[in-house]
Amino acid sequence: MTMSFLRRGDRPAPSAEALRLVSVTKVHGAGGENAVTALDGVSLSLRTGSFTAVMGPSGSGKSTLLQCAAGLDRPDRGIIMVDGEEMTGGNETELAKFRRRRIGFVFQQYNLLPTLTVAQNTTLPLRLAGRRVDRKRAREILAQVGLADRLHHRPDQLSGGQRQRVAIARALVTEPSVVFADEPTGALDTRSARDVLELLQDAVHIHRRTVVMVTHDPVAASYADAVLFLADGRLVGRMDDPRADAVAERLAHLGDEVPIGRPLADGVRAGV
Ligand SMILES: Nc1ncnc2c1ncn2[C@@H]1O[C@H](COP(=O)(O)OP(=O)(O)OP(=O)(O)O)[C@@H](O)[C@H]1O
Q1: Taking every annotated instance into account, which residue ranges of this chain make up the domain ABC transporter (predicted)?
Q2: pLDDT (tens digit per residue) in 179-198
Q3: Ligand 1 pocket, 108 CB below 6 A?
Q4: Is 63 a pocket residue for ligand 1 (Cβ < 6 Å)?
Q5: What's the whole-model pTM score?
């Protein structure tokens, strides 16, 4: 990697809130006989410049949480605020605009466009948002993720780890308030996974982005500043400065826990 990254413990000063969820509920198939409550009154608050992992058993609602928090899906109830601005109001066009301005995504399967070059994939969100494409900035950001010499390659000429680094550059190019990563290391070998996780750490600790990452992997989660644990659509625990072995241990006992947080006057739960 070409970037250095700060040691854990070198935290930014306490600051503004990047993401807030208030009593967010999502029912898949609402009204039908197969309705599933995937999120059940989830409230949380994440500060700007934090790196949070979301973990929980299969079916606990992690992807649904990410999709709702990122504005890719709409909750049935509750409020989502990004940088103090409510995302949950408005129509589809407004929501898409909001997302393009404020949100970045990294997916497990990269989701790069195969016919575009690395540089073109990276700047695509700027073009979609009708913003000026600053090629120098794109080159800089690709250099930061170690791909300065791959600008004109196409995705099928890259390794999985390199593709995911393009996806990170693409997520960061718009300088979003929050980057959501859904199993970003799920398809990678150990070494490439470490590179990707270090880049996400850099985005947080050097560039003060806010990252929320869903993962099944306790080692990946240990790169975050904190882990939130979900079970049955509810937040049931939080671990600061997570170590992989402690995360694995907590995951193994998740079913034993009760939802955390006592409702506060404004409806936000304490402790999350
Ligand atoms: N489109 C859908 N229609 C019906 N039910 C759904 C839909 N999407 C998710 N669910 C259900 O909602 C619950 C939460 O799903 P979700 O995908 O958010 O869980 P997850 O924690 O991300 O799981 P995994 O770790 O297996 O990816 C599950 O019971 C799932 O079956």
Answers
A1: 19-257
A2: 999 999 999 999 999 999 99
A3: no
A4: yes
A5: 0.87
